Amino acid sequence: MTMTASSTAPAETTAGLRLRLARSAQEPDSAVTPDTEFRRWFAAQRQSRRYDVRRIPFAELAGWHFQDGTGNLVHRSGRFFSIEGLHVRTAWNGRETSWTQPIINQPEIGILGIVVKEFGGVLHCLMQAKMEPGNIDTVQLSPTVQATRSNYTGVHGGSAVRHLEYFVPPRRGSRVLFDSLQSEQGSWFLRKRNRNVVVEAFGDVPEHEDFVWLTLGQIYRLMHEDNVLNMDARTVLSQLPSFALGGVALHSKQEVLSRLTEVRARREFVQRSVPLADVRDWRRTGDEIGHRSGQHFSLIAADIRADSREVTRWSQPLLAPAEQGLAAFVVRRIGGVPHLLAHARTEAGVLNVAELAPTVQCQPGHALSLPAADRPRYLDVVLDAPRDRILFGSVQSEEGGRFHRADTRYQLIEVGDEFPVEVPEEFVWVTEEQLGDLLRHGNYVNIEARTLLTALRASGAAGRLR
Amino acid sequence: MTMTASSTAPAETTAGLRLRLARSAQEPDSAVTPDTEFRRWFAAQRQSRRYDVRRIPFAELAGWHFQDGTGNLVHRSGRFFSIEGLHVRTAWNGRETSWTQPIINQPEIGILGIVVKEFGGVLHCLMQAKMEPGNIDTVQLSPTVQATRSNYTGVHGGSAVRHLEYFVPPRRGSRVLFDSLQSEQGSWFLRKRNRNVVVEAFGDVPEHEDFVWLTLGQIYRLMHEDNVLNMDARTVLSQLPSFALGGVALHSKQEVLSRLTEVRARREFVQRSVPLADVRDWRRTGDEIGHRSGQHFSLIAADIRADSREVTRWSQPLLAPAEQGLAAFVVRRIGGVPHLLAHARTEAGVLNVAELAPTVQCQPGHALSLPAADRPRYLDVVLDAPRDRILFGSVQSEEGGRFHRADTRYQLIEVGDEFPVEVPEEFVWVTEEQLGDLLRHGNYVNIEARTLLTALRASGAAGRLR
Fold first, then answer.
1. Coiled coil located at which positions (chains A, B) (predicted)?
2. Which domain holds residue B289?
């Protein structure tokens, strides 16, 4: 098989594409899918498509078992994913910590892809109403395609993935706008990445009752509602740059890269896979693996029945967080230009030592249970923020195919000149444009920060800073 | 500890820096270190500084032992590196292969850094004459600083690393020009990266008998000699862009990224650490671990005595390749612009599925022993190239601190219009400038390709294409 350089699309400058995206972002409604129609359709989807999710003992999982010797929770096909143990040792400025924990190992890269297309001169995104067993409200808006490699190669015995042809060679009738491998939750997944890809389609795209065309303006409005846009939609949307705001950044691009490189090089970080049976401080009962403190997360088993047109009944393990998460960027003007305070954060399963994360990212109940000196830096700034300094706030769900009712409060917190520009070396001020540029490459910006980048654009928050 | 945004250097455009680098590349001699003086100094270094390297049985290694249970070869400190086993399963377009092998695990990131400074308006690089036990000719030219974290934190009990202060905070009197984490040999190292960094110094830099200031022109001439510039020097030098040649690339930057992303996403690739004792087809004797075919590489033990001013005697394991390697880029003009044919290559220990590698990279004796269908693509083009189509050719050593007399024949092979532009999907045509841009980020361009990028600039080869 060969690939050629030719594209069916005319060459376009980055600025031209940004202008078209900006225009779509300014369209609060669509001629193709008027908002009233979307609302009716989405409500009907949520009403008619339900999963019956029932917790079961691990022993009742079909196809899954605890492996002899290691105690790892695996599928008999050797595919999908497994629950294993991980030992982590890390040190920073002389302070060393180590721990073991369960982690999801899914060493395959799936596709999260959005098809965009112009209607009446306005770019629209093809969004899917997708059910996931762990979802709050079951149905959320997802990218056009959301498929693990097992999905689209048919390992799970389901039907073909709709619209996949726009994302795999020979990829006729479309051209790639953005395409990179991006990380997922580093505390819960071992080095997991998915392909985040946006393609523009030129010919007719087949219609289907579970899909709608929405403008960026419509989608951005939905970001302000809780639990509508699923995690995969939010991360793919973060690939779309906003129209450049301009302004001089505090740090050059090279300085930002060097700051992150510095942390990655100097932070000691050693991951070692261990048998799940050897994970300390975690207890396995007949229907749960949990930390003895009750904190962090637990692993449970679920039996799932659906009216879905795919596989209609199955069982699987799910990861259930102990509490709602918190992810917040502190935002302030520096030299008149809005900057986000990013944290070079290391999580157990991270591929590349550290990624740029929100200023604060934690489980707040757990964080507040720690001695003051061990709490996340700037937690108080976020928790104590006056209401009128919260530029954006909503609760969003994490991946409902692996996590059980996992949600996070996402916030953008405005701070003024009283907040020092000088910050500890594991933090760095970046502009929205710089974060967007880093997203052309993988493993620079973590998934929580990517949701907040989408939120920043959705809220026009940068423009509203005092 | 905090870091500030300020830099002692005036802001400089990328074009300005490139011009200064181009000027240095055009200086074949230096007023600071005239070539005759350099030759005298280098010959004296090679004559006076020798290691006595003697192979010993594993049982005589001081501080190293085969760990109970796993059989891993480890140091009693738990530091430095270890020799472990790795199981790899990979599949591409339906063809699956799997194997186990020994691999070096050194989960820490060292610093490979060059200090540059202007003398008389010409940038010079501060190069070090460095001894390594595995080196051909013992002393080779290395970056200003070449230090594992164990080195510079003093784990091996040696003396302080000279000039380290230019590379670690608070990093006074210098500014960072380039800084990224880059991979090393994926077939021999498990996910190994080092920090490749270039800083410009402004004040006086202390002199020392083992260091010299050379222009890029002088260094580039040395690239044509065998075994003078060590691997670490070549990779750090690859970070320095040449003056942009201009011209339109066959593929846009986004297309190149997407091609690599496509390979990374679709290629199945699962690494699993296993005990060295469980590695199949490899035999351990009292003084060697080797493949039963005699191919690939073996692991040996060495006792090393030196006149060095650092630790003067120690023993360690070394990896000894079975034969000289071959790494070659095919180069052709497309639309008048020189392009390199890069291969999205997967090696056992790679961090991120695949990196851009030379067109052909193999052990040629092993490759020719394979059935024709299993040989590396384009091997014949390289091996059969007429002498006048070899734009660059020299033999260079790989890292002498881990490898025993490992060397590689590096070549740039010119091809004409008879060579098809259409190539299999795991290959992609890239310009020198595109490869240089990718080097701002880690794990895009493998170490053999980086040596060849330095060679391309050193030879002015692109300009000599017919």
1. none
2. 56-107+274-321
